[in-house]
Every structure is written in structure tokens, then in C-alpha cells.
Amino acid sequence: MKILKNYMFTILLLSGIVIGGISGIVFGEKAAIVKPIGELFLNLMFVVIVPLVFLSVSSAIANMEQMKRLGKIMGTVFAVFFTTALIAAVIAFIGTLLYNPLQNVDTSALLAHLPEAPSEQGKTLGEIIVSTFTVPDFLDLFSKSNLLPLIIFSILFGLATTLAGEKGRPIADFLQAGTTVILKMIHLIMYLAPIGLGCYFAATVGELGPQILNGYVNAFLLYLLLAIVYFFGANSLYAWIAGGKLGFMTFWKNVLTPAVTAIATSSSAASIPANLLATKKMGVPDDIAETVIPLGANTHKDGSVMGGIIKIVFLFTLFGKDMTSPSSILAIILVAFLVGAVMGAIPSGGMTGELLICSVFGFSPELVGTIMIISTIIDIPATLLNSTGNTVCAMMVTRFVEGKDWLKKKVMIKA
After folding, report:
1. Which pLDDT score, from 0 to 100, does residue 127 have?
2. Phi/psi zone of residue 191: left (φ > 0), alpha (ψ -120 to 50 degrees), beta?
3. CATH number of the domain bearing residue 360
4. 3-state helix, strand and coil shares in percent for the chain, rounded to the nearest 5
5. Cα-atom radius of gyration of the chain, to the nearest Å?
6. Which residue among 52, 167, 306, 326 is the one 20 to 30 A from 332 at the CA level?
7. Nearest partner of 346 among 375, 374, 389, 367, judged by Cα
8. HSE on the CB side for 1, CA within 13 Å?
9. How far apart are the first and last CA of the chain?
């Protein structure tokens, strides 16, 4: 019964989408009558994205309290996070090259009902970089179309709050409280998700036809295969790097509880206690575990990075955008990396990643609902990769901070 309770929201969400898809097939274009309900839900989500990004990112940095060995630990943490996320992105991109979710799907019928493809004609590379990472006015930050500049501003704001010391403490407390409040607000809005996304999907399928369903099924099957490969293959490699054969055995001996928690809750945040307990059983020092696990739950999500690749390729394929040039490949991988950093650490964690994809590549925000369906169907395996990825990263950070024999020393101390 407890497992059923944990899965209830995901079941309702998937049920809403399935019922919506069936309704779209049965009623066709008449299903558009329920589209305003779906748009109401999307608009409610849109208005909380900006405060969510600002508060959560700023708070994560401003409330770092593990100061011992902070410089070395934080440098190692970000190096490990970046490397593993990059590997996840490359694996997923290769997977989409081998099997594109929209292959053999008639995209012409879909394009007739979707917003036009983005155009960067007339812009130099420098202008694109400037407009992607910055805005000319403070008020421009408060727009869902400028998430990347907002994230950069939030990082600087959180860092400045930390450097202000005790004088910045009230601001840090406010950011932490604000993050808690905005997450509660999103929980309330997400109660409407089964109905809202169901109605939106019904209208989408009604307008675009059942062909689009094939694309989503293909996307799920591809992601599931990639998740299996990454969970067993990449995690085993990382554990071996962290501690050799002993590290491999230690990781797989202790990872079951965090893995089951992640699957049962579909929440990286809810998996933090289980991950902390597991990493400490693995011999990871407290200051490293208590830095890597909470920070990773908010900023390091290999599963979301892989999902980001599939979403971007989904849109690129729909609009016939080039995915083979070096610049396109680099842009896709880097944006997917950022998607992993901004996705919410809660079940079906909002649409921040989808908005970021549309914002950076210039797609219409109306396409958010189209790719958010992918987030829903891959939520459980993505959370599994997100959560267990932080566990093995804690072991690797310990390896580089404490030395290659850290695990043997822990075993000798216990003996």
C-alpha cells in the first residue's frame, strides 16, 4: 500500500495522458474543446518558473555551510558532476543517432499544427551568445524566455550572499524559506497536472493525429534502453574508478536502498536521506557526503541530461534542423547539460528544462507541453539515474580528495 501511495501521482498523471490520447484519437479535432483547460494548467506553471529558478539556485549556493576543505571539495565536485553529465549526454546523443524516436513517423502532419521553426538568420555568433547568456535590463530577467541569464544572475546573487558572511545570513534564510514556499506552490499546482496535461494531450493528438503517439513510444523505449546501459555500465565504471574492485562491490552492496527509494518516490529530493545513509555506509566522509548529495539533487541529474538530449532531438527532427554539424552537436550537448542542472528535484519536476530548451534554441514556448510529455513517461527511470548518480559521484569525489586508498583505509579502521 505504501508503494502504491508513492506511485499514485505518477499513475494518475500517466492515466490522464493515456485517457487524453485515446480521447484525441476518438474525437479527432473536436478534442480541441478541452485545450483551454490544458493551457490554464500550463500558464499556472509558467508563472512560477522564474521565482523557482531564482530562489532554488540562489539558495543552494547561499546556504552552503560545509566550509571544511570547501575549496578542494567543491572544485572536485563540479569536475566530477560535469564529467559524468557530459558522458551521459554523449551516450544519449549517440543513442539518438542510432535510433531517432521520430524515424518512420510522418512529421509533415505534425508541422502543420505546430509553431514555426526558429530562425537565427541575420545574427552573428557573438550576438547569439550575448542574447543567450545575458539581457540588457534587470526586468528582462523575469521572463521565462530568459532562463539562462536568470540562472547566471542567481548564481552570482547566491555567491555574493555567501561572501557577505553573517550580514548576508538573513538573505540566505529568506532564499531558503522562499524555495520551500515556491516548491509547496508547485506541489499544489501539480495536483491539476493529470487533468491539465490530459486535456492538452487530447487536443494535441486530436489535431496532430495518432502518428505523434508513435514518436512518444519510441522515445520511451530508447530512453529505457539507455537508462539500463547507463545504470549498470556507467555506474559500475565510476565505482571502479572510485575504489577498484572493492569500490565496485561496495557500491552495488549499498545502492539498493537509494535505488528503490528513487523508483518508489520519483523524487531526487526525497531520495536525499537514503543517499546520505548509503554513502556513509560506503565510507564517504560526512563533509563530502553532506555536500555532494544535497547539491547533486539540485544541480546534477544525469538522467535528466539524457532526457534533455531526446527532447532536443525530438524538436530538431520535427523542424528539420541540422544535428550533424559540430556547432549543432556542441549546442545540443551543452543545453542538455544545463537541462540536468535546472530540472526540479521533485516528481515530474516542473517544466524548467523544457522552457530552457525552447528559450535557447528559439522554439515557441507553446512547444513546452509537447516535450513535457516525454518528461512524464521517462520520469521513473530518469530519477533512478539522477539519484544513484549522486551516490557514486560521492565515492569518486572522495577518491580524488582523500586519495586512491581511501576505501581500503576505511575497511582497515572498521576491522
Report:
1. 62
2. alpha
3. 1.10.3860
4. 80, 0, 20
5. 21
6. 52
7. 375
8. 0
9. 40
Q: What are the per-10-residue average pLDDT scores of the chain (415 residues)?
A: 62 80 85 87 78 79 61 84 93 91 68 55 55 82 76 84 88 90 82 82 73 75 94 95 92 86 69 81 82 77 90 86 85 84 52 75 77 80 90 93 80 52
d(CA 74, CA 379): 28
Predicted local distance difference test score (pLDDT) of residue 27: 87
Among residues 212, 267, 243, which one has the least CA distance to residue 101? Answer: 212
The pLDDT of residue 122: 43
Q: Determine the length of the chain.
A: 415
Contact status, residue 85 vs residue 224, Cβ threshold 8 Å: no
Residue from 159, 158, 217, 209 nearest 31 by CA: 209
* Alpha carbon of residue 357 to chain centroid: 11
Q: What is the pLDDT of residue 48?
A: 79
Cα 20–chain centre separation? 25
| Rounded CA separation 245/274 (Å) | 23
* Residue 166 neighbours by CB under 8 Å, 6+ apart: none
User: What is the residue type of 8?
Assistant: M
What is the domain range of residue 62? Answer: 2-414
Which phi and psi angles does 266 have, rounded to 5°? 50, 35
Amino acid letter, residue 260:
V
Residue type, 110: L
What pLDDT sits at residue 75?
A: 86
What nine digits make up the cell of 94? 549517440
Q: Of 236, 268, 265, which is closest to residue 252 (Cα–Cα)?
A: 236
Residue 227: what are its φ and ψ, rounded to 5°? Answer: -65, -40
Contact 115, 363 (CB under 8 A): yes
Position 348 scores a pLDDT of 47
Q: Coil, helix or strand for 116?
A: coil
Q: Which three cell numbers stand for residue 139?
A: 526586468
Residue with C-alpha cell 524559506? 177
Domain tally for the chain? 1
Cβ count near 297 (within 10 Å): 22
Which whole-number Å values give the CA distances from 350 to 212, 329, 345, 355, 379, in the listed order? 22, 26, 9, 10, 11
What ranges make up the beta strands (E) of 170-312? Answer: none
3-state secondary structure (DSSP) of residue 218: helix
